[in-house]
Every structure is written in C-alpha cells, then in structure tokens.
Amino acid sequence: MTVRRSCRWLAVALLLPLSAGGAALDGLRERLQAAVYAGDSAELLAIEEALAGQEEDWARYELAYTRFRLAELAIDSDRRAAKRRLNQCIDELKTLLRERPAEPEFLALLATCYGTSSALYMLRAATRGMAADRALRRALQLAPDNPRVRLQEGISLLYRPAAFGGDPAKAAAALRAAIDAFETWDAPTPQHPRWGQAEAWLYLARAWRRLDRLEDARSALQRALAIAPGYRAAERELAALAGGPDAVAP
Question: Could you read off the pLDDT of 71-85 as tens digits, one per residue?
C-alpha cells in the first residue's frame, strides 16, 4: 500500500468519529501532537485530510496548526510547499478571525505563520513581518498570561532580525514566562488547544544556545524530552550539543 493510499485510509478512519464532538477532536489532537513530536509527515497529511471541511472553530484552528507543522517539515527541502502550507494556515486563521476577532489563540498562531513565511518571501518579508507583529501584539493585549501566546512571542524574538527587535535574551525571558504559564494555565473551555509545553523548553534551549549557555540548553532539552519522550527535534539538538560551542545552532 502506498503512503498516499495509507494516508487516505487513515484520514477516513479519523474523520468518521469526528462528528461525535469534543472527545473525537481530543483524540485527533493527541495523534496530531504525537505526529509533530515524531516528525511524521505522512500522519500529518492524514490528519489534514481528516480536518479539511470541518466547520467547528477549533477543528479549523487545528487544521491551520497542522498545516503550519507541515510547513515546518518542508521548509528546508521544499520551499514552495512550505509557502503553500503557510499561506493556507494564514487564510484559515484570517477567516476564523473575521468570525472571532478577539481570540488570542487564533492571533498568536497567525503571527507565527506570518513570521515563518517572512523568511520565504524576499520582496514581502517586511510586510509579512509587520503583519506578524500586529497579530502578536493584539494577542498579548488580549491574553498576556496565555502560555501559547508567550511561547509564540518568544519564538518571534528569537528569530526576528536584531534590527527589528530580535534578541535571544528577551526571547529566553518570554519563553520562561511561557513555561511558568503552562504550569498554571486553566483553559477557558475544553476545546482550547493544549500544545506547546515541550516546545517552550525546546525553544528556550535554542535561546540559551545562542547565548552560549550550553549547560542550560542541555537541561532545557532534557526537560522537553521528559514532557514528550521521543521528541525528535529535541533529541537531535541534544545530540548536536555534543559537538560543543561551534556546532550549528538551529
């Protein structure tokens, strides 16, 4: 059986119970996050197919999130595919925000998709970067204690050019705030997303590495793996630390 056919069959299996409500979406989210940690593009494609066409707001958010993760996996090997996925993510979130303009989760993910895509568009990098900044500032105004909002603030500060306010020390502070927020976060509804705790430790490790705090980076990666055993990105970066300070930072 081909990978494409396997994805189609898995998508059908995932789609059938989704109409049953929140429990089905919870199960799909667990599969989605497991696929993210494993770097499993085939399963992400199946989940994308299962979510496509769903009308519930949070299912549509998860579709945008899935496409963002597919873009991440493609960004080094297929920039055209990464652009397409990021634009799909942006379009879905903009549609959601027309219906719910004050939802910080939608705004924060929109900021991340715009920010990630800015590196892929030479002529539109500045406008996409500004769009990312506007969305993130609005999310922070609405929900300064939301852990995913603070996480995506930290990611923005880590990868934004220094001329536009990027700073690994400020990124580390935002990521520590995200980690603390995850410890006490009480989601407003059962439908709200839950991803990000292991990722906060991963990105904190990247900030520490840029600041040459390699032991702190190693400790942060170990925390990420304690939360998400088998997290491939954390495993790779922990192994790379054995290369010492001259190893290439992500």
Answer: 999 999 999 999 999
CATH class of 31-142: mainly alpha
Tokens of 175: 């990521």
Q: pLDDT tens for residues 30-48?
A: 999 999 999 999 999 999 9
Q: By the 8 A CB rule, do 86 and 67 touch?
A: yes
Tell whether the torsion through CA atoms of 84, 89, 92 and 93 is positive or negative.
Answer: negative
Residue extents of the structural domains in the chain:
31-142
